[in-house]
Amino acid sequence: MKRILPLFAIILFFNLSFSQNSETNGTTLEEYNYMISGYEMQISSGLDLKSGYKVDNIDSITKSNYSFSFNAFVRTKQNKLAGILIIAKSEVSGRTYYLGMPIHNTQLQKSFENDVKNWDERMTTAFAQALGELYSKQAILNYKEANKTE
């Protein structure tokens, strides 16, 4: 339990950071389900992305035997963030996980947190480190932009 609390603190701050920097109506259940299962099915089948959406890579971070690709799942019509699609790969188990980090949806946030809780301690630790690194990079960019510094 102790190892999970810092992770969820980082997730909360990360989620708030993205939600404050974007205007959004919140992630819908349909969008969340697409991020956690529909995206994988369409990509593995060679099909196009869900109509009305695009996926933009934010960053990819590797921590020991785990890699995490953070992607903006965007509603193209409004050009607004619908959620964060996270593709997590474990070199230890050989598994790939598709997660949806919802925006402005407390119920779906709990589902996201439960998905992460199912990982072993090494993977959750690597994920917390990756989130911390990503959040740090974003904070630096925001500071530079706000203060016009290099």
From TrEMBL:
Keywords: Signal. It comes from the Bacteria. Residues 1-19 form the signal peptide. This is Curli production assembly/transport component CsgE. It comes from Winogradskyella poriferorum. The lineage of its organism: Bacteria, Pseudomonadati, Bacteroidota, Flavobacteriia, Flavobacteriales.
